[in-house]
Please model this.
Amino acid sequence: MSQREAVKKHGIPRATLQDRLSGAVLMKKYATNCQHLSEAQEKDLACWAHVQEALGLAPTYYQLRRATEEILRASGTPRTLGKNWTANFQKRNPFVKTFQGKILDLKRVKGVTPNKIRALFQVLEGPLLRDIRP
Model:
C-alpha cells in the first residue's frame, strides 16, 4: 500500500506517517526519558497519593512535591522539579487526587481567638440550647 493510500484509509496526517516510517519517536515516549522519577518511583508515589486520598487525607500540591523531592534526594539525583511538575504528574496519573488549598480572608483568620471560641461554647451550653435534643 502506498503512503497516499494509507493516509486516506486511516485518516492520519501525511507528515505523521512519514515521521513514523523514518523512525521518529512519539513525544510521549521521548518525554519519559526526561522525567525526574523512574516509572517505578512514579508508580509508587501515585499509589501513596491514592491511598492517602482514600483515607480522606489527600496530599496537597506542596506535600506531593516535597515527597518527590525527598525521593530524588534519597536517590542522589541533583535535579530539581519544574514549576509545572505537579500538574504534569496529575495528567500522567489522572486517578490521583490532591487537595488544593484555599485562600482564607485575613479577617476570618484573625477573627478566631480563644476568647471568641470560649464565648461560643458558653452560648452553646446556655439554658435555651442545652434542652434541645440531639
